[in-house]
Amino acid sequence: MLMAMNPILQDAREKRYGVAAPGVNDMQTVSAVFQAARDLRAPIILDCVEMNDIEAVADIAKFFAARYPEVPAALNLDHGRSFDVCARAIRAGFTSVMIDCSKLPFEENAQITAEVVKMAHAAGVSVEAELGRVGSAQNYAEDRTAPLTDPSEAVEFAKRTSVDCLAVAVGTAHGLYEGETPELDFDRLAELREVVPIPLVLHGGSSTGDDKLALAVKTGISKINLFSDLSSAGTNAIRSLLASGKTTALGFLPLGMVYGAGIEAYKQVVMDYIEVFGSRGVLDASKKTFIS
Ligand SMILES: [Zn+2]
What percent of the chain has pLDDT over 90? Predict the structure, then answer.
């Protein structure tokens, strides 16, 4: 069942578990995510960036949502950069959009977010925004010093925009870290959970470490975006399959088999994270929430 993100995250916030939000881009990744959620009885959020064919991904998500009606799932535009692309995603059938104006000053970020919220809510679609800067893991030493989310600003932002959930900067970064895992500001996160009345989102979940992610969920994160770990698990699986020298009666490995090996590894990492975030079995525990 494809639904707005809000009820999924409200339940997560209330019961203090985290919803995995894997990055998807095609039929195989969408199918793998639905299967992982179905197998582990977990709600799920599919995150898709605008550089993909978002109209195609929306139709694919609708198809698999109909195939797995028991899975509460939201399809979210990840890092939408403008009002127009959010409108395009909503027209395509996305049930949630992220408007990311976190690079802009507070005032402009709040203003554009409020406009997107007005449009999206009229269509029954949820909105995620970002406050503070989540930088790049490859440039972590420098980006970690960028401003983390200020709790009183976050309260003001939520009030002024009526946004449904907020991505906060608490020390993670996008991509894979070289060497050390990131240093998370758990005190700040605890304060944000205390004062901000909407669910909080963590971007840059990959290679943060299971213990830190589990603690981030316990401290107040309701949605965790994942891309790099899933993608690199997939490419590594493909690399080992090719290096194994295996072949078929055709004398070569069909493309579907090669890509399938990557997707299988991608799916396994999604399942591992569902366990880490404590959302395994939530469907049975929260039946009423998702059926209404
Ligand atoms: Zn992100």
Answer: 86
229 among known catalytic residues: no
Could you tell me the pTM of the whole model?
Answer: 0.95
User: Dmax over Cα atoms in the chain, in whole Å?
Assistant: 64
The DSSP H or E segment spanning 222 is: strand 221-226
Q: Tell whether the model's pLDDT for residue 292 goes beyond 50.
A: no
Lateral strand order in the sheet of 221-226: 19-22, 221-226, 200-202, 165-168, 126-131, 96-99, 73-80, 44-49
CA triple 33-287-159, angle to 5 deg: 80
Report the distance separating Cα 30 and Cα 66, nearest Å. 13
Tell me the three state secondary structure of residue 78: strand
Give the separation between CA 270 and CA 188, rounded to whole angstroms. Answer: 27
Question: What's the distance, CA 3 to chain centroid?
Answer: 15
Torsion of CA 237, 242, 244, 248, to 10 degrees: 110
Q: Is the C-alpha dihedral spanning 189, 224, 210, 231 positive or negative?
A: negative
Q: Report how far ligand 1's centroid is from the alpha carbon of 252 (Å).
A: 38
* Domain covering 5-286, topology: TIM Barrel (3.20.20)
Residue type, 102: S
Distance between Cα 148 and ligand 1 center (Å): 15
